[in-house]
Specification:
This protein has ten helices and nine strands. The chain is of the alpha/beta class. The chain folds into two domains: 1-54; 80-357, Alkaline Phosphatase, subunit A. Strands 1, 2, 3, 4, 5, 6, 7, 8 and 9 form a nine-stranded mixed sheet that branches. The longest helix is centred in the first third of the chain and has 53 residues, at 2-54. The chain is globular. Mean pLDDT is 86; it is low at 9-63. The structure holds zinc ion (ZN) (2 copies). The site of one zinc ion (ZN) has 7 residues, from helix 9. GO terms for molecular function: hydrolase activity; metal ion binding. Pfam families: Metalloenzyme (PF01676). Residues 150-344 form the Metalloenzyme domain.
């Protein structure tokens, strides 16, 4: 009896072993498959989280911000908009530098505002065309010395026409004299009409550039004297020193302009007429060539990423706070967004409303 029992035990043990091993082997592919499925789920999940932020389709926007003040018709608390254009820094020296060493003032402001890391000039990357795109919502290849007016009315003309307010409620204050073109346009029925006040260059068009500290002083004076509802301020030095091929001066100019920006933000916050009713937008007209294109940071004007990629930081009562978004928007979208904030229409603007930045 003993040997057969032993044989039986052995057979049972072998069968059990095989069964367990088979079970393990059967389970292994399932586990792998499950792991693969899980990984796919994670990937899908991650993609679905990222996707609404990276696209601009209205459906995605709704998914991202399902009950905004904008969608509920509660916008907008903004009564004034000030746009500051830092002329021609590369993104790699502003927000693309993650130390923020050149823009500490804007980094402070960022905590109360919204930053776009995927914002571009998709037209001509020169000063007049860039400012034209910001102000009229159209990309035009303008002659770049101030000889040519934009074709279409700007936010300033549209605002003044819509509100009937006096000219001094809309201002263009610029270091570059050629930016006086932003005060008028070629469109029939608009030329010479509804023009904002301009304070550009030494003494207006074709008078030459003036120093940024003069523009800073003039901008403060205009704010205190007139409290404009709509204003654009241009600081030229990052562009000027870039063209001079003086890297350290170019960097210093970005830092100095950043200081002006922070000072203007602080001024707004300390002003009872402006506080909590004013939107500040900080952007660029264009960037500069990436290092491996032409003469690199010295010049600009083509379609390279360095020339196209620009900054957009905004702070105001209707915008998200302390957040960076990767939603792709572009330069011509600013005018449409300003029009929404101040409740007027851009009759000829091609831009779209930047819905994702709203509360
Ligand atoms: Zn420029
Ligand atoms: Zn370029």
């Amino acid at each position: 009896m003993f040997p057969p029992n032993r044989i039986t035990f052995t057979v049972i043990a072998v069968v059990l072993c095989l069964f367990i091993r088979c079970s393990k082997e059967t389970k292994t592919p399932v586990t792998k498959a499950a792991a693969a499925t899980s990984a796919t789920d994670k990937k899908t999940s991650s993609t679905s989280i990222t996707k609404p932020v990276t696209t601009t389709k209205s459906t995605d926007t709704v998914a991202t911000v399902p009950a905004t003040n904008l969608s509920k018709g509660l916008c907008c608390k903004t009564e004034n908009v000030i746009i500051i254009v830092m002329d021609g820094p590369r993104y790699s020296e502003t927000w693309g530098d993650y130390t923020r060493q050149n823009i500490p003032g804007q980094f402070d402001i960022y905590h109360y505002g919204v930053l776009l890391s995927n914002f571009h000039n998709m037209g001509t990357t020169n000063t007049d065309s860039g400012h034209d795109a910001i102000c009229t919502g159209n990309y035009e290849n303008l002659e770049n010395t101030g000889q040519a007016l934009p074709q279409y009315p700007s936010i300033f003309q549209e605002f003044l026409k819509a509100t009937g307010k006096p000219a001094e409620k809309a201002w263009v204050v610029a270091s570059k004299d050629k930016l006086q073109i932003l005060g008028d346009c070629q469109q029939a029925g608009w030329t010479g009409q509804y023009q904002p006040r301009t304070d550009c260059g030494i003494s207006g068009i074709f008078s030459g550039y003036r120093a940024d500290d003069t523009t800073f002083a003039h901008a403060k004076n205009v704010i205190n004297t007139y409290h404009p509802n709509l204003m654009l301020i241009n600081f030229k030095d990052p562009d000027t020193y870039g063209h001079s091929n003086l890297w350290s001066n170019y960097i210093k100019a970005i830092q100095t302009t950043d200081g002006y920006i922070k000072a203007i933000y602080d001024m707004i916050q300390a002003d009872p007429v402006y506080k909590d009713k004013t939107t500040l937008i900080i952007t660029n007209d264009h960037g500069r060539h990436v290092d491996n294109v032409a003469d690199g940071f010295v010049s600009h004007g083509d379609g390279c990423d360095g020339c196209r990629h620009i900054e957009f930081l905004a702070v105001g009562p209707d915008f998200k706070k302390g957040i960076g978004l990767v939603t792709p928007y572009e330069q011509i979208d600013i005018s449409q967004t300003v029009a929404k904030l101040l409740n007027f229409k851009m009759d000829y603007g091609k831009g779209k409303l930047m819905t994702d930045i709203f509360n």
